[in-house]
Design brief:
A 4-stranded antiparallel beta sheet has the order 1-2-3-4. It contains 2 helices and 4 strands. The radius of gyration is 16 Å and the shape is elongated. By secondary structure, it is α+β, with helices and mostly antiparallel strands. It starts with 13 loop residues before the first strand and ends in a 5-residue tail after the last helix. The longest helix is centred in the C-terminal third of the chain and has 15 residues.
């Protein structure tokens, strides 16, 4: 960590579908956190990607959006 900089405590904060659980480590000047998605998946990710909206879920959101797009485009219902 750079001298004079304090790591932001994000524990319990939620962005999109992701809730910060615990700080893991600093890697190349970037904070890595253990996070939990609303769907229940727990994974590690850079805090900055979550805070700036690059990472919004564990991947479940993309899957849901693709499923919706597919059902709209083809006029079919998917389970």
């Amino acid at each position: 960590m750079r001298q004079g900089r304090r790591r932001e405590n994000l524990t319990g904060q939620k962005f999109n579908r992701i809730t910060f659980i615990d700080f893991v480590e600093m890697q190349n000047g970037h904070a890595i956190w253990k996070v939990k998605c609303d769907c229940g998946v727990i994974f590690n990710t850079y805090a900055s990607t979550v805070k700036y909206g690059t990472t919004k879920s564990c991947g479940c959101l993309k899957a849901e959006n693709c499923k919706k797009l597919f059902s709209k485009d083809n006029g079919t219902e998917t389970n």
